[in-house]
C-alpha cells in the first residue's frame, strides 16, 4: 500500500498530539499519585491533639473526645523537637489558658479565718464567800446581765448561824472583852457580811437564816456553775461573767505564714453577720506557741464593741498585706501555672508562630508565695507567656508524646500497652525496662503517705463489683487526687525513682478519668491501674495486712486481668454481678 506525503504528515501530527495528551493526563496523574503517596507516608499514623495516646493508621475522629485526628508528625522541621504542639480547639477542650509574665509589687496577701471571742481580760468568776446551801438563786441562764451589787443568791449556812450567835454573846460582854467582840465582827466581815447586817443582828438579838450573795462586778454571764439546792464551799464559783464592751477577734495563722505576720500589722476583715461592711484592726498579740494538732497559732485583734454589735462565736474573714523584703522589682506567676515535685518546679512556655502553637517545659526557681502568685527568682523573663490553667493536661500530653515533662526532663515516649494476665508492668518503648516490682525499702512516713491511695483503690474495686458506676467514678477521681498529693520528698534513694515511675503510670491511666461515661470504660481503666498497684505492693510492702493478687481469665477480651484485694475471697470487679465469682487467687503478698 502506497502512502502519500500528506497522509504521512497527518499520522505524525496525530502521534505527537497523542503523546502530549498522554503526558498531560497520565504523567500528571503519576505525579499526583506520587504526592499522595508521599503525604500518606508522612501521615501514616494519626493521633488526637488532645489525647496523644490515640494511634490510628488513617484519619478519623478521636474515640474519646470526637475531635478530628491529625498526623502524628507534621513534617515541619521548624517546630522545636522538645515542644508539644496543640491546636486552639484542643486548648479550649483541655481548659488551657495562658498568662504573660510581669513584675509584681511584692505585696503578699494572707487570707485569715477568725472568730470573735470574749475578751479574757474582762472575765470574772463570781464566788461564794459563805459556805452553805443555796436557798434561792437570782441568776437563771447564760447570757443574763448582772449588775454590780445585785443580789445573785441566798445561802443558808450553819457556820454563819453559829457566828451570829457568837456575835450576840460577844456584844453582851463587849465592855469586859472588847477584843472578843471585834474578833467576831471581823470574822463575819470576812464572809462579806455588811456592817448594816451586823448592826441589825445586834439590835434584834436574833440570827438570820439566809444571807445574800452580792455581785462583785457587772457583766454578762458566760457560764453558770450551780443550781438551786447545791452545797457550796467557801470560795466556790457560782458563775463566770464577762464585760462585752470589748471583744477579741482571734485569727488563725498557719505555720507556713508565721514569718509574714508581726505584732502591729493591720488586718482588714469582714464578719459574716454584717455583709457589705469592712472592719479593721491591729494585731495586739500573737501566740508564742503553735497548736501541735492543728499547726496554727492565734493572732489577737482587740476591738471596741459599742452596742454589743459583735457577738462571741461570730465568724470573721480577714486579709493581711505584707511586703516582700527588698525594693527591686520581682516577677510573679499564678500558683496554678507551677508544677513541682520536691525541689523541682516547672512551667510550660507558650510559643506561637505561623506554624502553630507549641508548649515547652522550663524549670524555674520559686520564691515566696504571695497569695495566689509565686515569686519567680530564676527561669523566666518579663513578657514570656506561660500556661496558667491546664498545666497538668499539657504535661500529660508531653509525657505521652515522649517530650520532656515533669517526670522525665529528658523526654522519651511511654507505651500505652500492658501485659495482661500476669503482674508484669507496662514497658517504656525506648528503654524497654519494666516498672520495678522488686522489693524496695521505704520509710514509715512514705508508707503512711501511700495509705490514702490504697483506700481509694479498694473503694474503686468494691464499687465495680457492685456495678455501681457513680461510686466507682467518684472513687477513681479520689484515687487520682490522693496520689497527686503525695510528697515525693518522703521517698529517698532508689525508692524515689521507683515511685516516680509508678506515679507517672498512674497519672497516665487517670488522665481522662473525668471524661469516662460508663462502667465499661471504668473497668478498662481499672486493669492497668491494678497492675501498678500490684507491683507497688510487692516493691514497697506498705500494707499492714496481707493482700491477694486475683486473676480473671475472661476479662480484657479473654486475655485475662489481675486485681488486688484485701480479702482471700474472689469478688470479680471486671464483670460484677454477671460473673461475680469468676477468678482465682494467684498470689498472696504478706
**Mean pLDDT over all positions:** 80
The percent of residues in helical segments reads 25-40%
Strand content: 25-35%
Largest sheet: 6 strands, antiparallel, barrel
- Shape, per Cα inertia axes: elongated
Number of DSSP helices?
11
Key phrases:
4-stranded antiparallel sheet, 29% helix, 590 residues, alpha+beta, 29 strands, elongated, single chain, 6-stranded antiparallel beta barrel, 11 helices
Summarize the structure in words:
With 590 residues, this protein is an alpha+beta fold. 29% of the residues lie in helices and 28% in strands. Strands 6-15-18-17-16-19 form a 6-stranded antiparallel barrel. Strands 3-23-22-21 form a 4-stranded antiparallel sheet, covered by helices on one side. It has a 4-stranded antiparallel sheet with strand order 5-20-25-24, with no helix packed on it. A hairpin with a 2-residue loop joins strand 21 (339-341) and strand 22. Helix 3 (158-172) runs antiparallel to helix 4 (178-190), helix 7 (444-465) packs antiparallel against helix 10 and helix 9 (494-509) runs antiparallel to helix 10. The longest helix has 38 residues, at 5-42.
Amino acid at each position: 500500500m502506497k502512502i502519500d506525503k500528506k497522509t504521512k504528515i497527518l499520522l505524525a501530527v496525530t502521534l505527537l498530539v497523542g503523546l502530549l495528551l498522554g503526558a498531560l493526563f497520565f504523567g500528571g496523574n503519576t505525579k499526583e499519585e506520587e504526592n499522595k503517596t508521599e503525604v500518606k507516608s508522612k501521615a501514616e499514623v494519626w493521633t488526637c491533639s488532645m489525647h496523644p495516646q490515640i494511634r490510628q493508621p488513617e484519619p478519623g475522629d478521636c474515640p474519646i473526645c470526637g475531635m478530628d485526628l491529625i498526623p502524628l508528625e507534621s513534617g515541619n522541621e521548624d517546630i522545636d523537637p522538645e515542644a508539644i504542639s496543640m491546636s486552639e480547639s484542643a486548648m479550649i477542650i483541655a481548659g488551657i489558658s495562658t498568662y504573660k509574665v510581669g513584675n509584681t509589687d511584692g505585696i503578699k496577701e494572707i487570707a485569715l479565718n477568725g472568730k470573735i471571742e470574749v475578751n479574757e481580760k474582762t472575765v470574772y468568776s463570781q464566788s461564794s464567800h459563805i459556805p452553805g446551801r443555796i436557798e434561792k438563786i437570782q441568776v437563771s441562764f447564760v447570757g443574763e446581765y448582772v449588775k454590780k451589787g445585785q443580789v445573785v443568791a441566798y445561802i443558808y449556812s450553819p457556820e454563819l448561824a453559829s457566828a451570829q450567835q457568837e456575835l450576840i454573846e460577844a456584844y453582851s460582854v463587849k465592855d469586859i472583852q472588847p477584843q472578843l467582840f471585834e474578833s467576831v465582827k471581823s470574822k463575819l466581815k470576812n464572809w462579806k457580811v455588811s456592817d448594816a447586817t451586823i448592826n441589825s443582828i445586834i439590835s434584834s438579838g436574833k440570827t438570820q437564816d439566809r444571807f445574800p450573795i452580792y455581785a462583785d462586778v457587772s457583766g454578762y454571764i458566760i457560764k453558770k456553775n450551780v443550781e438551786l439546792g447545791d452545797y457550796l464551799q467557801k470560795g466556790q464559783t457560782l458563775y463566770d461573767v464577762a464585760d462585752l464592751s470589748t471583744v477579741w477577734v482571734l485569727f488563725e495563722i498557719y505555720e507556713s505564714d508565721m514569718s509574714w505576720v508581726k505584732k502591729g500589722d493591720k488586718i482588714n476583715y469582714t464578719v459574716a453577720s454584717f455583709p457589705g461592711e469592712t472592719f479593721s484592726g491591729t494585731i495586739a498579740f500573737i501566740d508564742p506557741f503553735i497548736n501541735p494538732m492543728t499547726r496554727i497559732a492565734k493572732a489577737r485583734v482587740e476591738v471596741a464593741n459599742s452596742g454589743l454589735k459583735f457577738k462571741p462565736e461570730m465568724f470573721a474573714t480577714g486579709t493581711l498585706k505584707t511586703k516582700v523584703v527588698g525594693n527591686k522589682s520581682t516577677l510573679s506567676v499564678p500558683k496554678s501555672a507551677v508544677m513541682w515535685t520536691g525541689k523541682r518546679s516547672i512551667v510550660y512556655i507558650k510559643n506561637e508562630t505561623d506554624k502553630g502553637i507549641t508548649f515547652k517545659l522550663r524549670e524555674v526557681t520559686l520564691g515566696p508565695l504571695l497569695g495566689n502568685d509565686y515569686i519567680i527568682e530564676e527561669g523566666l523573663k518579663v513578657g514570656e507567656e506561660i500556661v496558667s490553667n491546664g498545666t497538668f493536661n499539657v504535661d500529660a500530653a508531653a509525657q505521652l508524646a515522649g517530650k520532656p515533662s515533669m517526670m522525665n526532663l529528658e523526654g522519651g515516649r511511654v507505651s500505652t500497652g500492658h501485659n495482661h494476665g500476669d503482674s508484669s508492668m507496662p514497658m517504656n518503648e525506648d528503654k524497654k525496662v519494666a516498672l520495678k516490682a522488686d522489693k524496695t525499702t521505704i520509710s514509715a512516713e512514705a508508707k503512711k503517705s501511700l495509705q490514702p491511695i490504697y483506700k481509694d483503690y479498694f473503694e474503686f474495686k468494691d464499687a465495680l463489683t457492685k456495678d455501681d458506676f457513680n461510686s466507682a467514678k467518684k472513687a477513681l477521681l479520689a484515687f487520682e487526687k490522693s496520689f497527686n498529693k503525695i510528697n515525693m520528698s518522703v521517698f529517698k534513694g532508689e525508692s524515689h525513682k521507683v515511685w516516680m515511675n509508678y506515679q507517672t503510670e498512674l497519672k497516665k491511666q487517670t488522665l481522662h478519668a473525668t471524661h469516662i461515661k460508663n462502667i465499661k470504660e471504668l473497668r478498662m481503666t481499672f486493669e492497668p491501674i491494678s497492675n501498678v498497684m500490684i507491683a507497688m505492693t510487692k516493691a514497697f510492702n506498705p500494707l499492714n495486712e496481707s493482700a491477694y493478687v486475683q486473676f480473671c481469665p475472661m476479662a480484657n477480651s479473654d486475655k485475662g486481668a489481675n486485681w488486688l484485694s484485701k480479702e482471700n475471697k474472689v469478688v470479680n470487679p471486671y464483670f460484677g454481678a454477671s460473673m461475680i465469682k469468676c477468678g482465682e487467687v494467684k498470689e498472696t503478698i504478706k
